[in-house]
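User: Predict the structure for this protein chain, please.
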Amino acid sequence: MLNLFSPGDGRRFDRREMLKIGGLTVGGVGLPQLLAAQAQGASPRRGDGFGRAKNCIILYLSGGNPQHDMYDPKPDTPAEIRGEFSTIATSTPTVRFGEHCRQSAKIMDRLALVRSMYHDHSDHARGSYQMFTGTEYAGSVPDANSMSRQDMPHLGSVVAKLAPGQGPMFPFVLVPHRMDVAGGRRVGQFAGMLGSKFDPMLTAGNPNDDDFRLRHLPLQPNEQPAAFRRRLGLLEQLNGQTEYLQEQPAAQSLTQAQTKALEVISSKQVRQAVDLASIDPAQREFYGRNLFGQSVLLGRRLLEAGSRLVQCNWQRTQGINGFAWDTHWNNFSALKDDLIPPFDQAFYALITDLEKTGQLDETLVVQAAEFGRSPKVTLKNGGREHWPQVYTVAFAGAGICGGQVYGASDKQGAFPAESPVTPADFVATIYHFLGIDPKQETHDQLNRPFQLSKGSPIPLEVV
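Assistant: Here is the predicted structure, written as structure tokens:
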């Protein structure tokens, strides 16, 4: 049995303190790795951009946002397909959006749309698994609600292992929560076979609270020294007393995870980033005083604190309907009143904020979901159903030329008409811009090799 004592006073650490410390053993550490060389030149090129992104933020609209009513409208189709919304011009003359995407329309000249995403899974969990890992889930729909250490890792966990950056913040963070339903833990949101060392940090809480800060990180400077000494003492004992466990993968990650926890809680940069209560109220209003808007603001600040990949998840608890973007009924009223306005504001705020500070060139911004919605409206309840056969994602920043559209859906927005793109390609694209070769192999916690992605980076135009 392993006994833990503070070296200064001989006192045994109690269970409460162990849980507090253990709660910080999330994320991964490793030797800092250099980013790939920046792409050179000023002329647009397709298929370039390797290593252009210092970090990445993903805005994930769980439930599946409708392509017809947002970024791929079909105004010349019958009413049961085009829906209730008209279209508006964007900052790119050849591209039109659904009428309620007013803020996004202003930044289309900074966006690259991919209108030909597709896959074969029409359920949320397995669709998200593909988008997060680039790999099809082999199990059943019920299986997909129970994560396993045999699962493929989320791309953020791979980044945490292969290119964690210089910190000090955890390299991979989910804001504010996972996307779980009915008590399950959906697959694809963890490090899976890479082991717990590379699991994401979860910020938890509600970033829209007036006094939001990460409660499990000490933010009061006068409380730090003693806490640091005690945790460092614990770490030293763990280093000296776990030799007999070194053959176990879980034990091998313990020292590194605790080291990272100490690095995080000792960082003034981290404390400032996660303390939304102390920032200018006008900046909070700019992103939108709602759960998603403040999640995006927090995600953007976590990038500044050293995270390499932050995923901001739309939660079912936001809004009056409680179904996120899963609009099986009341699609149009939910989009108009509850869904598009807060997303649209936060997306616009993020792009313009990063551009204003000069950080957009080194930040890959991604908007995605597990699938789109059906071309044909369900007339009896005004809903659109799950539709993985074709949907749209958006990229911006990291040298990507704005105003471009890659791929196309057919006349009804039902299937890809040209340049189809898979989730494996989507994941490979993010790896590529972060300076990670998607074709390379790495090893799981049992030292078994696997390839990061079987897809190819989307050949977007870059400067």
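The chain has one domain: 31-217+274-462.
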